[in-house]
Amino acid sequence: MKLKYTKCALAIASFAAAISAAHAQSSLANPFGATPANSTAVSAMNKAQALAALPAAAKARVTQKFLDKLLENESNEFIVVFDDETPPTVAATTDLNQRLAAQRAAFKNTRARVRQAVAGHDVDFRDELTNLPHALVRTRNRAALVALLNQPGVQGVYENVTVKPHMSISNPMIHQTSAPASLHKGNGTTVAVIDTGTDYRVADFGSCAAPGGSCRVSHAVSVADTPYTLDSKSHGTNVAAIVASVAPETRIAAIDAFDLVMEDNKLVDRTSAYKVSKAVDWILANKTALNIVAANMSLGGGKYTSACPATTPGTSETYFAMAISGLRNANVLPIVSAGNDAYTDAISMPACTPGAISVGALYTASWNSTTSSGFSYGPEGAPVCFDANGTPAAYRVACFSNSSSALTLYAPGAFITAGGLKMAGTSQAAPHVAGTVALLRAADVAPNESLDQIQARLTNSSPTGASLGVKDWRNNLVKPRLDVLSALANAHYQVMQKVYIAYYGRPADPGGLAFWAVALFRGNAPTTLTDLEAAYSTNAAVKEVVDSFANSAESASLYGGKPTRDFVTAVYRNAFNREPDIAGRDWWAAQIDSGALTRGKAALSIMAGAQNSDIEAVNRKTIVAGNFTTLMDTSAEYNAFLKPGGTGPARARTMLSSVGATTDTTGFLQTVAQTLQTIVSENP
């Protein structure tokens, strides 16, 4: 099956491409030795004879369209996938190394049996994988093709289709700079980038002389026909640098799967389905040693209006599905760009493959809708796309991004500066997600969660209520957008938001929330308010976090020099929007003044003891506060809110003071947005 692929990376800078002889097509060595000169192949068959020699079971191993194409020629090269004969008991084991070892052994035995069966025919096994049951095969005549298709150990025969790459800083948009940059870094993880190679000499990776050691690029390998290159087209460098930016301590395994070939009188990067699987095979072989947690594939093509079919032998969709399934079975999350064909009802393959996380592109800022620095943007080889109803703006779906109901989520994709290069495309959106997976799978977050749980984190809206959905202005479909803070969020984030409300009467800023939530996480603190209050006397992390609020500069500004009963009254107002009864106020004040309770512990205990309508007031304040924190996602908003002597915290306190037990938190989103706008305008 011949697929049309459209390059989605839209390079802005011009590059002087110096193409060396190393890019020339090289021959692929046969690991099984040369085919014997005096083959014992049966006599030549014509097309009709070959068809007659194929029973229904053999024809089911290949699509009719591809079979017709094969039978038009005497000699053909294609992919063979062998049956997976791994024992069911071993295939179901949770021990990854044991499972992979059993699969390798089963694949090896099946291949050996098939090779033995066709040894008397002109079948040349040119290359085979180890961790996937795939081989690149050339048959020299129709009789050899018939012999291979008739082997029961052959699952299917697939066309080795051609694949192209999918050709203003974005991190604040996904809450990476505000929340986890200094806390969660993806340490101990590796992200594999299947692309055009990576120039590890650039500063983003440490200006390395070679991969490994202190270089962010731990491995640079080639599965292409030509040796590893330093990315003459710069696509893979930009993609890998985005991963490195989102996850500052993850390592990059750069897999060069592309060769430079002449197409329409110009040199272009191209790979094939088999080379993509060969890259996956390398990932499976090195998964455990490198702790590879995600595989980024900014490549693909075709137009698929729904999830790709994954169970029909012989189809390209099924072939890619096996690669995606192999990654997921090894606990590696496949992240795939959706494509830049401007489709509003479809995405490309393998993004459409079940199990793949498909990623569309958002703008990162506003600019003229037709050009940016003289550059007209749109898919290569297709008409330039334009934005109707206004100019591009941050969080708006890029006009070139593919979109459909099958899309998983959006991430920043236009324009992204990384690796010293400025590019745009869904190619640039996907590595934001891959880097976030590295943050999530690191030892200090959720290393043991399942891939489904990690995916739920990626697509979850704010845990405290704010919807992070983006409506595509072209088709009105709503899909989640990537938000690191929400992905990292757990019950510690929610309980810390309540501490902020009780003590300061305001929502948490993203950086502060992440800092204290991580402190609780690392201290194995409880995740509910009542349990946190009970653990104050036994858990050092809880005591340190809670008492830090009382010792802060903001606390001194709010409560310094005031009677203790005024502090207690403020906590009641912050938490419940009401005055305390006199007896209760005086009791709490006496406990604090006697030293029986710290102010931090008292605030925590007051909120934890909420009853009746007070509980609902706390819950709704927590939702609104979470919305405020989530929507504070630009540098201008961060800086304005935290400006020394500024009006940010006071404005936020005023906003939250109007939230009570009956507030419509969804309708209140507009007030949250307006408050942020006011803070920005007042604190330039």
From TrEMBL:
Keywords: Hydrolase, Protease, Serine protease, Signal. It holds the Pfam family DUF4214. Residues 547-610 form the DUF4214 domain. Belongs to the peptidase S8 family. The active site is at D195, H235, S427. Residues 1-24 form the signal peptide. PANTHER family: CEREVISIN-RELATED, PEPTIDASE S8. Residues 186-468 form the Peptidase S8/S53 domain. GO terms for molecular function: serine-type endopeptidase activity. Gene3D superfamilies: Peptidase S8/S53 domain. The keyword Hydrolase applies. InterPro entries: DUF4214 (IPR025282), Peptidase_S8/S53_dom (IPR000209), Peptidase_S8/S53_dom_sf (IPR036852), Peptidase_S8_Ser-AS (IPR023828), Peptidase_S8_subtilisin-like (IPR050131), Peptidase_S8_subtilisin-rel (IPR015500). One of its GO terms (biological process) is proteolysis. This is S8 family serine peptidase.
